User: Fold this.
Amino acid sequence: MQKLLLGALLGLAVMTPVAAHAAPPAPYQIAAASDFDAMMAKGRQHDARGEYEDALSYYKKSLAIKENDFAAQVMIAHALLMLERYNEAMDLCEKLEKHPGAKDASAYYRSEVYVVLGGAQGLKSKREGMMAMMKYGLGVRKQLEKGVEIDPDNARARYALGRYFLEAPGMVGGDAKKGTEMLAKAVKMDSDDWVIRGNYVRGLFQINSPSAKEEGERFVKDFASIPASQKTFADVIAKLK
Assistant:
């Protein structure tokens, strides 16, 4: 029973550690508009390759240029989550909920606050066991649903909630078919995100979809240049052999 409930709390599309990596609305190319934009874009480049320590470093440089910037802090929280620094990510997200710049921020960044917060709570519960599980309960799902509600076009929010449905037991709303369908929508929104694509393929195998092998082979080919993708989804790749 405990294992089932802990699984239900894994709400965030975890890559490995989670999941999840951010799919920002702006391109990954370095912008020339300002040093702030350049640092943010450089962080996203590292983020996209699973190089989270480097990403965190550039997001912090962005924040040093534009003090208290909402978007920079959201991306810092994301990087902390990916580095498994869950308490720090949660603390920052809780502060961002009350940030004066939130009301003027884009829907994407406001959505990300809840995606990261739900992911950090779920993964902390999975790692620390019953006490953390009792504290956060099924609030993980509520956080992820709020992320989707704020920005329905945020691929990573849909991906995170899709992973929740994919991994949670039926007693708390888990539904592998529903989860895979939601992941398919996330892929349509951002087919270049290797974390989303890999977990979509994982879902296809889980529901025994006839297209699982073909999609898996396409995933391996498309992201061969990103070592983290091959390591993270070794279980998927093994099914192709």
About this structure: The chain has 14 helices and no strands.
